[in-house]
């Protein structure tokens, strides 16, 4: 923590003590600061930068806080970390609020990333059996499923249209938009069912 001036270090330690134990690791030419694996700030060149997640980033930009620019092999890379200005350091109430925002929104972002499905089987309506079938027709990743779309995935899964069913089509659509097939948006559901009916008629 010697990278921070002593007065700022003391304030930081006092504030984050409410969240948990502060730890650090070497990163981005300085140190990233974290509590329970949630990185919410970095220090570099005796400056303190708060992570801009969610609403916090909008707030920091509105208050003219400069983004941290990291040089990687001579190439400048702008990161979502914003420098606390001298004016903010002198305003304890605002400083505490900004630190709280950084931790709060960084935690939300961290938890959201943890909950993101990593495999097709983790999506709504799908399971290991359907994941295997999708793999067999060349769809191995969630991104591929979303890019191809429900209709094309449906056609890939069935050898002949009459062997499929509307539940499978709606299940694929629900997986793509992130909901159970029973609560698909009505307009989308109607469009898919009409398409399915047309496809079924053509198959006979």
UniProtKB/TrEMBL annotation:
Record SUPFAM superfamilies: YgaC/TfoX-N like
Signal sequence region: none
One of the GO BP terms on file: establishment of competence for transformation
InterPro entries per record: TfoX-like (IPR047525), TfoX-like_gammaprotbact (IPR026256), TfoX_C (IPR007077), TfoX_N (IPR007076)
Protein name as it appears in the record: Regulator of competence-specific genes
Organism: Proteus mirabilis
């Amino acid at each position: 923590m010697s990278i921070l001036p002593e007065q700022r270090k003391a304030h930081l330690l006092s504030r984050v003590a409410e969240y948990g134990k502060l730890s650090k690791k070497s990163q981005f030419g300085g140190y990233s600061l974290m509590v329970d694996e949630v990185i919410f700030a970095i220090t570099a060149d005796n400056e303190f930068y708060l992570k801009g997640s969610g609403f916090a980033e909008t707030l920091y930009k509105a208050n003219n806080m400069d983004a941290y620019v990291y040089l990687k092999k001579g190439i400048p890379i702008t990161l979502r970390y914003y420098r606390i200005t001298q004016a903010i350091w002198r305003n304890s109430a605002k400083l505490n609020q900004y630190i709280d925002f950084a931790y709060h929104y960084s935690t939300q972002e961290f938890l959201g990333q943890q909950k993101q499905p990593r495999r097709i089987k983790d999506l709504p309506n799908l399971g290991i059996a359907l994941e295997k079938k999708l793999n067999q027709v060349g769809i191995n990743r969630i991104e591929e499923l979303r890019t191809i779309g429900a209709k094309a995935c449906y056609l890939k899964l069935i050898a002949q249209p009459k062997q499929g069913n509307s539940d499978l089509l709606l299940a694929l659509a629900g997986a793509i938009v992130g909901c159970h097939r029973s609560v698909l948006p009505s307009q989308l559901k109607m469009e898919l069912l009409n398409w399915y009916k047309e496809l079924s008629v053509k198959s006979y």
